[in-house]
Design goal:
It is built from 4 helices and 7 strands, in the order βββαββαββαα. A 5-stranded mixed beta barrel has the order 1-3-2-4-5. A two-stranded antiparallel sheet has the order 6-7. A hairpin with a 4-residue loop joins β4 and β5. The model has no long low-confidence stretch (mean pLDDT 95).
């Protein structure tokens, strides 16, 4: 059985592996949200940034990309993703059902937020998110870069996200 990975944030533009196949996909029951304080990759303990996570919500859905993994690389890709995504225990790895845009149904490795974790900050007003993103820098670079890359890749895929578009525009105003 083919291993699939669901990309909704940085995995869209930096999966860290070469997918065998890439298909637009929808995950039910979750929405994409800047609901995780980043203290490693896009911020620090002193000045946290924000990264996207999948926040569970009734009636919600998130459209992103399903990435299939070449069979001989599955163990290596899973190890890489766990090192990258599970750097803190804020994300939980789940295998969840996706509806692919071509009609197929698959199960995919997906990283969702643990709403009980100290890094969880769901429901934060957009203006507050913009202020945090505009000023945070972490081990993988500026938080702004993460926002801009994700927003532009969603746009290229025809998956514009209103909140992310607003945030990108507002953050550009803040940073000048």
């Amino acid at each position: 059985m083919t291993m699939w990975v669901f990309g909704y944030g940085s995995l869209l533009w930096n999966p860290g592996f070469k997918p065998r196949e890439q298909v637009i996909a929808t995950l039910p029951g979750y929405h994409r949200s800047f609901c995780m304080r980043s203290i490693h990759h896009r911020g620090t303990d002193e000045k946290p940034g924000l990264v996207l996570a999948l926040d569970e919500a009734e009636g919600a859905h998130c459209t992103g990309v399903a990435l299939s993994v070449h069979e001989p690389e599955e163990a290596q890709v899973l190890e890489y993703l766990r090192e990258r995504e599970l750097i803190s225990s804020a994300y939980v790895e789940k295998v969840l059902p996706l509806a692919l845009s071509d009609g197929r149904k698959v199960e995919a490795v997906t990283y969702v937020i643990d709403a009980e974790h100290v890094q969880y900050c769901g429901g934060m007003p957009l203006e507050e998110q913009a202020q945090m993103i505009a000023h945070a820098v972490g081990g993988r670079g500026p938080n702004t870069e993460y926002l801009y890359n994700t927003t532009s890749h969603l746009r290229e895929l025809g998956l514009e996200d209103e909140d992310l578009e607003w945030l990108a525009q507002r953050v550009r105003q803040i940073v000048g």
